[in-house]
Structure formats: structure tokens, C-alpha cells
Amino acid sequence: MHETSLGTTLTDYLSGESIDETTYESFRQALARLLVEERGYPKDRLKAKQDICYEIDGEPFHRPIDIVVYDPDNRPVLLVMFCSGSVGSYEREASVAARLFPGGPAPLAVVTDTTSAALLDAAGGGVLAEGMNAIPRWRQLLEMAAERRAEPLTEEQRDRLVRIFHTYSGFLFGACCQDCRPTRG
């Protein structure tokens, strides 16, 4: 299932603005509510649909990340990616996205289908915890992120990771996902 517009709007939980309702937007909204209301994240530390921009052979692309959580110093510490399939099959993509994220790398990532989740150590690789309870509370997130500060990528590392990320994301470009397309002038 790809994300498509439903032709209506809804009020965004995080910003209060009217946004396009899509096949995934209700999941994104539920994840934002869970983070704020159940896990104690300050609402102003979450940003929805934040882009990772990159180039492949000179052609620009961008891919939105569902929710990015920023620490009090405005550094990305957690990327949350919704998946419409097996959580395990999205783990590598989410880890790579966290390492490539602007202002990062973000040390942690969560991939979830809203019934299951995996908390990932983006820099070290691997799954730290599974299940919806794996999503840390705010204070716990800050502690975990401080323990896992990732070094900035070298240009060679970034180039390699961009190709991996594009391979995972590339099937979306030109498909029905309006938010995930090559950026053209």
C-alpha cells in the first residue's frame, strides 16, 4: 500500500494546521499522540514529514520521514518511520535514514506499523528492543541518545549510505506516493 491523498483535510495534532489527509496520515497522527500523551515527549520537540534530501548521479531526491524527535539543543535524536509491512523488513532503511538525517546523525530510530515496533541503534546497528513498549519515554530517550552520540559521516560513508537509502526508497519514486518523488527544478 502506498500513501495517497484521500482528497480531504484534517487538523494536524502537532502543528494545529490543516493538512492533506492521506492513507497514512491517521497512523502518523496516532504515533504523534502516543509520543506526546503516553511517552511524555514535549510536542514542540516533534516535527512531522521532515525531508532527507540527497542526489544520485546528479539527480536530486527527497524522502519525508514521518516524525523526527529533537533534543533540547535541537539535534535530531530519534526518527520514527511508519511501515505498511513487516517491521523487520524496514529496520535497515530506518537505521540508514537516521544516519543520513540533516543535523545528525540521529542515534536512534523506531520503525513501526502501529501494532509492533523496533527501537534501533542507528550508529551501532541492531535492534535494541521490540514491541510498542520499546518506544522509550522522553527522559529515557534523552539518556539513550546521550550514550549513543554518533560521529558525523565522512563523504565516502555518506555516499555509500545514500545509495543504500535510495535502493530502499527508490521503488516509491514515480509511484503513487505524492510525498516521495524526485525533486525537479
Say what the CATH topology of one domain is.
tt1808, chain A
Helix count, per DSSP? 4
What would the principal axes of the Cα set say about the shape?
A: globular
Helical fraction equals: 25-40%
What is the CATH first-level class name of one domain? Alpha Beta
Strand content: 25-35%
The pLDDT mean sits at 85
Based on CA atoms alone, the radius of gyration comes out at 16 Å
Major sheet strand order: 3-4-5-6-7-8
What letter string, H or E per element, gives the SSE order?
A: EEHEEEHEEEHH
- The N- to C-terminal Cα distance equals 28 Å
The low-confidence parts are 173-185
Largest sheet: 6 strands, mixed
**CATH architectural label of one domain:** Alpha-Beta Complex
State the total count of DSSP E strands.
Answer: 8
Secondary structural class: alpha+beta
What does this structure look like?
There is one protein chain. The protein has 185 residues and is of the alpha+beta class. It has a domain of 127 residues: tt1808, chain A, CATH 3.90.1570.30. The protein is built from 4 helices and 8 strands; from the N terminus they run ββαβββαβββαα. A 6-stranded mixed β-sheet has the order 3-4-5-6-7-8, sandwiched between helices. The C terminus is likely disordered.
